[in-house]
Specification:
Blueprint lengths: L5 E7 L3 E8 L5 E7 L5 H16 L6 E8 L1 H7 L6 E6 L5 H4 L24 E4 L2 E2 L5 E3 L3 H13 L4 E5 L8 H13 L4 E4 H4 L5 H31 L5 E5 L5 E3 H6 L7 H15 L6 E6 L4 E7 L2 E2 L1 E2 L2 E3 L3 E2 L3 E2 L5 E3 L3 E2 L1 E4 L5 E5 L5 E7 L18 H7 L17 H16 L3 H23 L11 E5 L3 H12 L3 E3 L11
Parallel strand pairs: 1-4, 4-11, 5-6, 5-9, 9-10, 13-25, 25-26
Antiparallel strand pairs: 1-2, 2-3, 7-8, 11-12, 13-14, 14-15, 14-22, 16-21, 17-20, 18-19, 23-24
Helix pairs in contact: 1-7, 2-7, 4-5, 10-11, 10-12, 11-12, 12-13
């Protein structure tokens, strides 16, 4: 008798955690969707995995493959929930992170403030050493100075340290030596060497990548560690993999060492899925449109290949109209699928600004309390509430009937926060919320296509995510895209 084997895919978003279980022998698919748990994202993952196995009557030992897409790394930076991190560089360059770059996301915005460095200046240190651009030693490394710095960082109670010396991409000996000294003085601290993470020239970008890796490494390590520990305790012996930002996968062990490679893990999975779905019907030029509960992500796929960039900023401010501007986040030099991400998801909150203008996002109601219509205590109107008022959602069959939507709560939120302040009717306000969101998403689609030199009329639109299909056809009309594809069970496409 053949023992059936199964694969599990789980995607953790800001609002819901999606799971897919596939029978490797028959191809049968089981799906689930559970609320995310922002206080501890690993609980959402484990809840989804346990529910999949329970409902399909599958034993943990029958699972041969688990792959996970998550935004936990990005969220840690956006929310400022990062580890206390130190920074060591060549003497004279300790202000590298403070100086950053001479660019701004909005040229004429006099109120713009550069993002605060992930490492405060008092935890940045320079040590005597110098290499030239060929990697030849001009000044040897002062190991005594390194030990003094290591002791200072230990006294400050740092959890992680980044090391970025000038020209270490050409010769990593000095960085390696610093790493060994740090391990001697602080054996429990996570060390990230720029020459190992991204051995490329341009010291600020290399330093920023290493610092992002260090600052999220303890958080990701605890997150993946708790998942692995629980799964192993339950008898699951499968290889555990994480989606990378470039659309590939790597092991939990590698992800715990180099989490900077998974900052766009969840959204990257969606782009790969969009490409797969379109290819199944012979389409290879695709605009991927992924609208979840918190954000909308769009990407371009040409000739079956997603565009990949090395000019990406993690934690960039997501505007609801233009996407994230260069200079508003922390640059990383690892390969990332080229995405435009904006703060417009199903849970994005509609509000009236001091000038009396209706706006939507980027703030989201998230999983807790969620949109007003969820009946979980939310009082602010969201895109989901507006879609419910407009009759685009079935209140009795949301999430397959598991969640009943409360129309009266949605009406109350939109009337009190939007319609009455603006002198509009309920339907006018709800329609206005949806139209503003659509306009923002059309801008995002144009950013990824027209502004990159591509004609949207030459592409198909794949709309997915929990809220994607509700808006996809209107966006296709507004951008002249000739064909819209909606996958089966679009809410779990990224997990699939």
């Amino acid at each position: 008798m053949t023992t059936e084997k199964y694969r599990i895919g789980i995607d953790t978003g800001g609002t819901f955690t999606d799971g897919v279980l596939i029978n490797e022998l028959t191809g049968e698919i089981q799906i689930t969707k559970v609320p995310s748990t922002p206080d501890d994202p690993s609980r959402g993952f484990l809840n989804a995995a346990a529910r999949l196995l329970r409902e399909a009557s599958v034993e943990p030992k029958q699972v041969s493959y688990v792959v996970h897409g998550t935004t936990v790394a990005t969220n840690a930076i956006i929310e400022g929930n990062i580890a206390r991190t130190g920074f060591i560089t060549t003497e004279g360059f300790r202000d590298m992170l403070e100086i950053a770059r001479q660019i701004r996301p909005s040229l004429y915005d006099l109120q713009f403030e550069k993002p605060r460095p992930l490492v405060p200046r008092y935890l940045c240190f320079g040590v005597p050493e110098r290499l030239n651009a060929l990697g030849e030693v001009i000044a040897p490394l002062d190991e005594d100075a390194v030990r003094i710095v290591a002791l200072k960082l230990k006294d400050e109670g740092v959890e992680a340290v980044s090391v970025c010396l000038l020209h270490s991409y050409a010769n990593q000996d000095h960085e390696q030596r610093i790493g060994k000294i740090l391990h001697e003085v602080m054996p429990d601290v996570a060390i990230s060497l720029s020459s190992e993470i991204v051995p490329e020239f341009r010291e600020y970008f290399r330093a920023s990548t290493a610092v992002v890796n260090s600052s999220i490494r303890p958080i990701v390590d605890r997150y993946l560690g708790s998942i692995e520990e629980r799964l192993r305790a339950d008898g699951l012996e499968a290889e555990l993999l994480v989606m990378q930002s470039n659309g590939g996968v790597y092991t939990f062990e590698a992800a715990r060492e180099r989490p900077v490679y998974m900052v766009e893990s969840g959204p990257a999975a969606g782009v790969i899925a969009a490409s797969f779905v379109a290819e199944a019907i012979g389409e290879f030029n695709v605009l991927s449109f992924d609208m979840g509960g918190t954000t909308t992500k769009v990407a371009l796929i040409q000739d079956g290949e997603p565009k990949v960039t090395k000019e990406y900023e993690v934690g960039a401010t997501a505007g609801a109209d233009t996407g994230a501007g260069r200079g508003s986040g922390y640059p990383i030099k690892t390969p990332v699928i080229d995405l435009v991400e904006i703060g417009a998801g199903g849970g994005s909150i509609a509000w009236v600004d001091p000038g009396g203008v209706l706006r939507v996002g980027p703030r989201s109601a998230g999983a807790v309390p969620g949109p007003a219509c969820y009946g979980q205590g939310g009082t602010e109107p969201t895109i989901t509430d507006a879609n419910l008022i407009l009759g685009r959602l079935n209140p009795d069959y949301f999430l397959g009937g598991e969640v009943l939507l409360h129309i009266e709560q949605a009406e109350k939120a939109i009337m009190s926060r939007c319609a009455e302040p603006l002198g509009l009717t309920l339907l006018e306000a709800a329609n206005g919320i949806v139209e503003i969101a659509n306009s923002a998403m059309v801008n995002a689609l144009r950013l990824i296509s027209v502004q990159r030199g591509f004609d949207p009329r030459d592409f198909v639109l794949v709309g997915f995510g929990g809220a994607g299909p509700v808006h996809a056809t209107k966006l296709a009309m507004d951008t002249d895209v000739p064909l819209t594809i909606i996958p089966m069970s679009p809410g779990i496409t990224s997990a699939l």
